[in-house]
């Protein structure tokens, strides 16, 4: 039996048992490609991989790590945001997570935070939406597929099972736009982002 067949059999047996208890959960074929070698699902909705990747819901304990990673990612090229004070980043992220309709998801690699998705649900005439406020991956791990796996995890998470669409806003001249296109997001031709500055 090939390694991929063995992994697929292992994944299917664990997922089938989990789905009977909890419903759909991270089932896309992407789990069987690339660097992932084993999937285990425990009772707390964690997804763990043999190579040390751990996907889980955001908790208050993740705030400090998320603030540090956010500052690191967005202070660099191509964003060059001026997040000089970590306390300011924490204040911003705390405002996001205190939203009563907030949902967040994080990825750890051997206890190091490497990616996060922070957003909120909202009601809309066409169905419930999930708006991704922030999505960021450590520069050391970009281009390795972790962002796509996190997106897949979020889209299939039971907490968001009633969500009918995902929305986000990003700059048009950064690699993030290509990443979102690759993961199924489309540019809306009839929408434009507008800003009015007061000083």
From TrEMBL:
Classification via InterPro entries: Acyl_CoA_acyltransferase, GNAT_dom, YpeA/RimI_acetyltransf
Protein name stated in the entry: GCN5-related N-acetyltransferase
Molecular-function annotations in GO: acyltransferase activity, transferring groups other than amino-acyl groups
Provenance organism: Methanobacterium lacus (strain AL-21)
Domain of life, per lineage: Archaea
Domain N-acetyltransferase: 53-199
A matching Pfam family: Acetyltransf_1
Transmembrane segments: none
Keyword Transferase: yes
